[in-house]
Amino acid sequence: MNRDFLKDKKRIVVKIGTSTITHVDTGHLNLLKMEKLTRVLTDIRNQDKEIVLVSSGAIGAGRKALGIKEKPRSLSKKQACAAVGQARLMMIYQKLFAEYNQTIAQILITKRTMINEISRRNAENTFHELLNMGVIPIVNENDTVSTDQIQDENFGDNDTLSATVAQMVQADMLILLSDIDGLYTDDPRNNEKAEFVSCVEKIDDGLCSMAKGADSAFGTGGMTTKIAAAKIANEIGVDMVIANGNDVVNISRILEGKEIGTLFKA
Ligand SMILES: Nc1ncnc2c1ncn2[C@@H]1O[C@H](COP(=O)(O)OP(=O)(O)O)[C@@H](O)[C@H]1O
Ligand SMILES: N[C@@H](CCC(=O)OP(=O)(O)O)C(=O)O
């Protein structure tokens, strides 16, 4: 499918996953990638487009800072890691974006923020003010108070969160950056015959069954939560692309209409 229509997208939500902003082997933050990400996003802002960044990585960053070797299972441990890691994450984003004189803001939300009409409206107003002021809001789930998914392995699922943020800010497009080129017919890490899917025009049960969970030590959700995000986004008319965040310039290429990643056409 020709992707020239993506050139006209003005308000874009970009989500970056833990596996993308951390080094695979150590789990430490990948500063070079974060530095490139801030440069690319500021450059997109310079083209008069608006950006909301949904960044994961708080739990992973906190876990490294606290010297916790195993992936934390208990909710309170994840929350403690997130509390330490979120501050680190923002400190680094602040420093990197400041290099380019780009103002950022932190917005921490929970699923409950979206459900409650008053808090939703407050968040919505804040987003709109910030975007009008040229600020890049950086969003994460407020993991320390988020009790909605206490027993849920999908705690802190930023894929679906980014789709609801896209809905809240009336975005034109959602880009999910991951550690893989996009959707395959099966998880290519476990099935070498898996084939790449370039474009999805209908999300049906067959497509959902292709998506498996995350196999990595730091990522959560895998493709399952990305398909769930695509469903939410497409239903409200928002096009979504899953692309490889190893090269963050992919964000610019997508917005130039290049055939990068898997496009979920609304
Ligand atoms: N059908 C599929 N196509 C591509 N990747 C898949 C699929 N099913 C499962 N995956 C896994 O999903 C992972 C990406 O999800 P995740 O580790 O949660 O990343 P992120 O931190 O970017 O959210 C991939 O590395 C891959 O192993
Ligand atoms: N709020 C969590 C995000 C968890 C999450 O969805 O992670 P990922 O699957 O890597 O996008 C954190 O910052 O660690």
Topology of helices and strands:
Elements: E1 11-16, H1 18-21, H2 31-45, E2 50-55, H3 58-65, H4 75-99, E3 104-109, H5 111-115, H6 117-132, E4 136-141, H7 158-168, E5 173-178, E6 199-200, H8 205-210, H9 222-235, E7 239-244, H10 250-255, E8 262-264
Parallel strand pairs: 1-2, 1-5, 2-4, 3-4, 5-7, 6-8
Antiparallel strand pairs: 7-8
This protein binds adenosine-5'-diphosphate and ligand VHF.
Structure description:
This is Glutamate 5-kinase. Belongs to the glutamate 5-kinase family. Residues 10-244 form the Aspartate/glutamate/uridylate kinase domain. The protein has a single domain, classed as Carbamate kinase, CATH 3.40.1160. The mean pLDDT is 92. α7 (158-168) runs parallel beside α9. It has ten helices and eight strands. It is of the alpha/beta class. It is globular, with a radius of gyration of 17 Å. It has an eight-stranded mixed sheet with strand order 3-4-2-1-5-7-8-6, with helices on both faces. It binds adenosine-5'-diphosphate and ligand VHF. Adenosine-5'-diphosphate (ADP) is lined by residues 17-20, 178-180, 183-184, 186-187, 189, 210-212, 214-216, 219-223.
Which structural traits does this protein have?
binds adenosine-5'-diphosphate, 10 helices, Carbamate kinase, 266 residues, alpha/beta, 8 strands, binds ligand VHF, 15% strand
